Amino acid sequence: MNSLLIGELAPEQPSFEPTKNKELTDEFRELRAAVEQMGLMKANRAFFLLHLLHILLLDAAAWLTLWAFGTSFVPFVLSAVLLSAVQAQAGWLQHDFGHLSVFGTSRWNHLLHHFVIGHLKGAPASWWNHMHFQHHAKPNCFRKDPDINMHPFFFALGKILSVELGKQKKKYMPYNHQHKYFFLIGPPALLPLYFQWYIFYFVVQRKKWVDLAWMVTFYVRIALTYVPLLGVKGLLGLFFVVRFLESNWFVWVTQMNHIPMHIDHDQNRDWVSTQLQATCNVHKSAFNDWFSGHLNFQIEHHLFPTMPRHNYHKVAPLVRSLCAKHGIEYQSKPLLVAFADIVRSLKESGQLWLDAYLHQ
User: Fold this and answer.
1) What is the DSSP string of 292-340?
2) What is the value of pTM for the model shown?
3) Contact predicate 259/280, CB 8 Å
4) Is 79 exposed, middle or buried (0-12, 13-18, 19+ CB in 10 A)?
5) Could you give the CA distance from residue 258 to residue 278 in angstroms, rounded to a whole number?
6) pLDDT confidence of 7, banded at 50, 70, 90?
7) 14 pLDDT exceeds 80?
8) Helix or strand holding residue 281 (H, E)
9) 276-289 pLDDT, tens per residue?
10) CA dihedral 26, 32, 33, 39 (to 10 degrees)
């Protein structure tokens, strides 16, 4: 770090930037220490083993459905739904390993991460790490969080950025209708029309050959097990339907916690404030926890990214108290309300863009 050293601050100079909340930061550090002492950073490996087993059972059930009942419409659709659940749940599980929240050593987390995202999903671990770590460092910060890169070419996101875009007289899309075309180019299209192809470009362009090898094992396994039942065309059809269903599942869950929240350029706020203003929760229930991979506790996940997910609900009351003390809103809402808020926020930001575009 010596190359970055400019000099030492004089004793009378403030050591904390004025844009950052020192009291909140100090109290969060105390909370973090207390959480570690409570053992909430330690994983229950049986939880993750059972989760992996339920994914493998769903995967086997999808194949057995076609093998036992044939390839007519109903078994085909049932198999596609089961495989979509496999892909979505494997997505949440690889997220756990990617955050190093299961094993005490990085080596085992990385190995299982490769297995789940590579062999069970056909995607590269390095691509996920590259994208997701940036998201956690600066969530909802324009040009720093890749998860909001759809602004401004597809959507106008957030009140501030939308007004800014309108004042600049920029119109890449009819943003005042984005709450409508979101249903066409958002949930249905992200995985089958973008991610599915971009990941191959990513691994080849960056020469990630280990990731590519893991990905190949996924496609070989799928071909060997489903081509004898469906043929090549039937498998391609099944694969597209699965990616389509998974994409809808993935987008609604991952965007419900962030899109309705504060989106802006990086304001150099303290880390805790940055995480809190960009995240909200969805109420706890057995279904919500399973359906979202416990990402309904998005606030706790962003504040404790290496915490095993089965402990989020235990730390939530402590986080809520910290927020209340500092006058920070702690949002938690029903699942369907969270989905609706995505559309509502897109409609609102689209209208703000239009008003600024026409009148400012």
Assistant:
1) HTTTT-HHHHHHSTTS-GGGHHHHHHHHHHHHHHTT----EE-HHHHHH
2) 0.93
3) no
4) buried
5) 6
6) confident
7) no
8) strand 281-282
9) 999 999 999 999 99
10) 170
